[in-house]
Specification:
456 residues; globular; mainly alpha
Length: 456
């Protein structure tokens, strides 16, 4: 960063203000585009959660329900296929319970409310990640860059258009990161409560605890495990045990559906659907874009004609995470118990990357809206990157190219989306390892200097 300060700070500040203004303008334009999409399209992924929450309110099974004529149109998901044994609801009952708060509102109102929630969660996440940055220049450069790359991306357009929920998980993790960097004496408890809640809403997030263990943050670990158990117990009590049994049963079938191995119902005729549902005729409409399923399961099946079942994917995912964990441990083994701000950076950086790695192995379609989970590791890498090092700049350039690829710059090549997503994860993993090695080296040098000084 020393090269940057060869320019007068006043000019740098003006350039960053201009950069921030451009990022805000692009974000604002994106927000208006999202409003247009909300009016034109039906939020196909949001619809199944709304229907699931309404079914939960009525004591019906959200995971095996099939709508038929004569039933309330509020319980109709027009994208659901009659022949599949399960519904399209794939979130756990914990998410459905939270959604019951607004589920009975007219659907069009929920669409706009969820639009505001998604954008608020995005801005809130950037606020939590940025708030504790000491340098004014850094506090402008980082959110501007991330806001530009995320809010202007095609995957954020898709996330908002279909009404996805991944940004909520990012928000909770970002809030935990913010709290843990404060001087509040209860920061481990509060940060753990948020992480436990996030995990109870999406179970794969549990891998964020691996770096917590590696870097020996046991207070946070205990608080998170306690919060997770408390949240799950509360959700089981309020929703009932049976719906959870139904959820795990349905997810097993959903995994088989992803590779075409689930048994479909025979001699089932499609039920004629009303032309207007809750006063809307666009519930099956969505953003026109290229939909690429980037899951490992789909890729192996398409390329090698090999079916990977859930148990295979679990083993491969565990091996991948174990290898990364071992590398991380040995890369940052110096002073891993030392409590500094950077220690939280490496925990949340590694944890967020582990989430992205695990997401590739989940036996379900993985579409580009999942990429909103790049937000945290992208921010933390940009924050800690050594901009004076040539290799770091090369890796950053490759990362930006990967982001452009996943946003369709080479859309004529269908695999460019997949290469962009997988490439971004690989590059970030490499950058995280190099970052930890640099931090360990700096720590070792500091210790050596202290020993020399004490010797004098």
């Amino acid at each position: 960063m020393n090269d940057m300060y060869q320019i007068p700070k006043e000019k740098v500040a003006k350039l960053l203000n201009l950069f921030l203004a451009i990022a805000l303008i692009i974000s604002l334009l994106g927000f208006f585009v999202d409003i247009t999409h909300t009016i034109r399209h039906g939020g196909v992924d949001m619809r199944n959660r709304v229907v699931g929450a309404r079914l939960l309110n009525r004591g019906l099974d959200p995971y095996y329900f099939k709508w038929s004529q004569g039933q309330d149109e509020k319980l109709l998901d027009p994208m659901d296929k009659p022949r599949t044994p399960v519904s399209r609801v794939t979130v756990p009952p914990s998410v459905l319970f939270l959604h019951t708060i607004i589920a009975e509102l007219p659907y069009i109102q929920q669409r706009f409310l969820w639009l505001l929630i998604q954008w608020s969660a995005l801005i809130g996440s950037l606020f939590f990640l940025t708030f504790n940055q000491g340098q004014k220049l850094t506090s402008k450069f980082l959110p501007s860059t991330v806001l530009l790359l995320i809010s202007g991306s095609s995957f954020w357009r898709l996330h908002v258009d279909v009404g996805q929920i991944y940004i909520l998980y990012v928000f909770l993790i970002s809030a935990s990161y913010y709290i843990l960097q404060t001087t509040n004496k209860f920061r481990n408890i509060l940060g753990g409560l948020l992480l436990g809640l996030a995990i109870s809403l999406r179970f794969p997030l549990v891998v964020i605890l691996l770096p917590v263990i590696i870097f020996k943050k046991f207070k946070l670990l205990l608080a998170t495990v306690f919060s997770l158990c408390l949240c799950l117990l509360a959700f089981v009590v309020v929703t009932g045990q049976q719906v959870w049994i139904s959820y795990f049963s349905a997810m097993t079938i959903t995994g088989k559906l992803a590779i075409g191995k689930a048994q479909l119902a025979q001699n089932v005729t499609s039920t004629p659907l009303p032309s207007m549902i809750e006063g809307m005729n666009n519930l099956t409409l969505m953003l026109r874009t290229i939909y690429v399923n980037s899951s490992i399961q789909k890729f192996v099946n398409a390329l090698l004609k090999v079916d990977l079942y859930s148990n295979h994917l679990i083993v491969i995912a565990c091996v991948s995470l174990l290898i990364y964990s071992v590398i991380i441990y040995y890369s940052g083994r110096h002073n891993i118990t030392k409590s500094t701000v950077s220690s939280w950076d490496r925990i949340f950086l590694v944890g967020s990357l582990m989430i992205l790695i695990l997401e590739l192995f989940i036996p379900a379609p993985r579409y580009s809206y999942n990429n909103i989970q790049f937000l945290i590791p992208l921010f933390l890498l940009l924050k800690n990157l050594d901009y004076s090092e040539t290799k770091s700049i090369i890796l950053l350039s490759c990362l930006i190219l990967s982001f452009l690829m996943m946003n369709g710059i080479f859309s004529w090549f269908i695999y460019s989306f997949l290469i962009g997503e997988w490439g971004a994860i690989v590059i970030m993993v490499v950058m995280s390892i190099r970052l930890l090695k640099r931090m360990a080296s700096q720590s070792a040098n500091t210790e050596l200097e202290e020993v020399i000084q004490n010797g004098r």
